[in-house]
Amino acid sequence: MNTALIVDDSAVIRKVARRILETVNLKVSDAEDGETALALCTEAMPDVILLDWMMPKMDGYEFLTALRASPGGAHPKVLFCTTENDVGAIARALHGGADEYIMKPFDREILMTKLEQVGLPREAHAA
């Protein structure tokens, strides 16, 4: 079973994303900040990470940089999630190691499309 980690300081976003991802046979864990997420990745590296950009303690960019530098950190597909429509911020995220981005708010269809774009195996999200 593929695994997913949702990293977002919004409990609502984490809950919505969890519900969507669990319907497509992903084992889901979540964290409210980058520090907690990095600790979870050290324990067990997920296959895909939904990553908020603006968070307390450690923002998305700091987390992404630390993730990619850690053992196994090149493995997860990272979907950067943002309310920002700043092309510069999106470019920075993609250049920093994110595989794709999603604008908030997102729905199931958008999330499934993005998962396909980053190559999540089709059987992992057969509804």
Question: TL;DR of this structure?
Answer:
With 127 residues, the protein is α/β, with parallel strands linked by helices.
The fold-level CATH name is Rossmann fold
Low-confidence stretches: none
Number of self-contained structural domains = 1
From the coordinates shown, what is the CATH architecture?
A: 3-Layer(aba) Sandwich
Mean pLDDT: 90
N-to-C span: 14 Å
State the shape. Answer: globular
| SS-derived structural category | alpha/beta
Order of helices and strands: EHEHEHEHEH
Q: What do you see in this structure?
A:
With 127 residues, this protein is α/β, with parallel strands linked by helices. The protein has a single domain (3-119), classed as Rossmann fold. It contains 5 helices and 5 strands, in the order βαβαβαβαβα. A 5-stranded parallel beta sheet has the order 2-1-3-4-5, with helices on both faces. Helix 3 (60-69) links the parallel strand 3 and strand 4. Helix 2 (34-43) runs parallel beside helix 3 (60-69). The mean pLDDT is 90. This is Response regulator. The modification 4-aspartylphosphate is found at residue 52. Pfam families: Response_reg.
